[in-house]
Write a structure and sequence with these properties.
This protein has a domain at about 90-195. It contains nine helices and no strands. It has helices at about 20-40, 45-55, 60-65, 70-85, 95-110, 115-125, 135-150, 160-180, 185-195. The termini are far apart.
Length: about 200
């Protein structure tokens, strides 16, 4: 208006930041990252989105997780802990029928978390590169899974080979399911188990 600049008195809402202990802040970041990735997919989530969800600056997220890969690795580690708590086997030995039922419960839980399984699968392949930041994490996880499964499959003639067969099939089926959502995961899984646990 006639060259006069009118300043608006409207103020942007001030973000209220809550101070948290480092461990609590780190847990909050991982929790929010998991929630956002599960809802939107990892390609649609940025460090800025996660910072907004936590009510902090992006630089604060970077303080705990210098790269997105570092954060994704933490998300996967948290998923492992949650998985262990949700479907822990315990110390009692399992019959082959009990083990089959237990593994099916794990599969059903994974099917309900498609985005996290997708994230896990993509990162697992990328992390085959020894220079990948998640390489050690996945290598250790694979060794632990093979050792545990070899113990659980002690009724097989060669438990070590059986453990590799089971894990290879499981991971392959997850990859197929991600590539082709029409795949009936449970139908294929049950057909495999009919032979494997006979």
């Amino acid at each position: 208006m006639n060259g006069v600049t009118v300043k608006s008195n409207t103020r942007q809402p001030t973000r209220v930041r809550t101070r948290l202990a480092p461990a609590a802040r780190r847990h909050q970041i991982v929790t929010e990252a998991t929630r956002l990735i599960s809802r939107s997919g990892f390609n649609a989530v940025s460090l800025g989105d996660i910072a907004d969800a936590c009510g902090i600056r992006k630089s604060s997220v970077l303080h705990y997780f210098p790269t997105m890969y570092d954060l994704l690795t933490a998300v996967l580690a948290q998923r492992d802990r949650d998985e262990y708590e949700a479907v822990a086997i315990g110390t009692a030995p399992l019959t082959r029928t009990e083990l089959r039922a237990h593994l099916r419960r794990v599969v059903e839980r994974n099917i309900a978390m498609r985005e996290i399984v997708t994230l896990f699968t993509v990162l697992r392949v990328e992390a085959m590169d020894p220079h990948h930041p998640a390489h050690t994490y996945f290598a250790q996880r694979t060794r632990a899974a093979l050792e545990t499964m070899s113990i659980l499959l002690d009724w097989k003639p060669d438990p070590a080979i059986a453990a590799r067969q089971l894990i290879a099939f499981w991971q392959g089926l997850e990859t197929l399911w991600i590539a082709d959502p029409a795949t009936d995961f449970l139908l294929v899984w049950d057909a495999f188990c009919d032979d494997f646990f006979r």
